[in-house]
Amino acid sequence: LPALTLAEALDVTRIHSVAGLLPAGRAIVTHRPFRAPHHTVSYAGLIGGGSIPRPGEVSLAHHGVLFIDEVAELPGNVLEVLRQPLEDGQVTISRAAMTLSYPARFLFVAAMNPCPCGHAGDPTRACCCPPQAVQRYLARISGPLLDRMDIHLSVPSVGYSDLVDRSPAESSASIRARVAAARERQLERFRDLPGIYANAHMGPREISRFVPLSGETAAVFKRAVDRLGLSARAYHRVLKLARTLADLAGDEQVGPGQVAEAVQYRVLDRGEG
């Protein structure tokens, strides 16, 4: 991820100060937060709470990353409260005496097994789960919550040859430089729009303005929407992701390749596990 801007650093510092987590001797947080609560985290621990509501994990991850492993193991009521922060970038905590809102704009990363035994789709190990059990397990992540996720991918098992491969790969520093360049393009694009700093922050009006589709690109997207039956929310998510892919490639306009790639990153919309 790119370095925190001064405004972002001040936001993160305020939240950590309210939560009593500001490191001793440090006046400001200079690194993007990474929060990885256990899947047994409570409603209050995730969203925030207490007699005087304190920030939860979603706010402590503001301008950073919230990672939840085994996300399907979270209780349904806890998992579904992620809808508001993923949609609005903030969370509201109501108590009898007060109502507080904390910012919660984070990169959400979640991981889960494809089925209870963990082997569905594995070419080398047979899955022992009945089809109904697999469907019940995947259904723990509701459609409305999936719609709020830009990317869902199926990750296959890693073979021995890949584990021991020492071939040179692109360095993290190189990837970060490309990401930072893409973020600079976005900051320039939205310089006259307060509160919008990245493609993910765009609403339908900004998408219509900044993600125009040419004839060929629009035709590719129409076929995908018709075939997959994408919701309006997923429709806009795909366009924002395609705009980001174009920024990473240094392209001024979104092309059919970027739209097709963005659609390919939504495997659960395609009925794949």
What would you note in describing this structure?
By secondary structure, the chain is mainly alpha-helical. 43% of the residues lie in helices and 9% in strands. The protein contains 13 helices and seven strands. The protein has a three-stranded parallel sheet with strand order 1-4-7.
Total strand count, please? 7
DSSP strand (E) fraction? Answer: 5-15%
The count of helical stretches stands at: 13
Strand ordering within the main sheet? 1-4-7
Report the C-alpha radius of gyration, rounded.
Answer: 20 Å
- What is the mean predicted local confidence, pLDDT? 90
* Largest pleated sheet: 3 strands, parallel
Give the fraction of residues assigned to helices.
40-55%
Concise account of the structure shown:
By secondary structure, the protein is mostly helical. Helix content is 43%, strand content 9%. The longest helix has 18 residues, at 172-189.
Keywords summarizing the entry:
mainly alpha, 13 helices, 9% strand, 273 residues, two-stranded antiparallel ribbon, three-stranded parallel β-sheet
Reconstruct the topology from this structure:
Elements: H1 6-18, E1 34-35, H2 43-47, E2 48-49, E3 54-55, H3 57-60, E4 65-68, H4 76-80, H5 83-88, E5 90-94, E6 99-103, E7 107-110, H6 131-138, H7 143-147, H8 160-164, H9 172-189, H10 204-210, H11 215-228, H12 232-249, H13 256-264
Parallel strand pairs: 1-4, 4-7
Antiparallel strand pairs: 2-3, 5-6
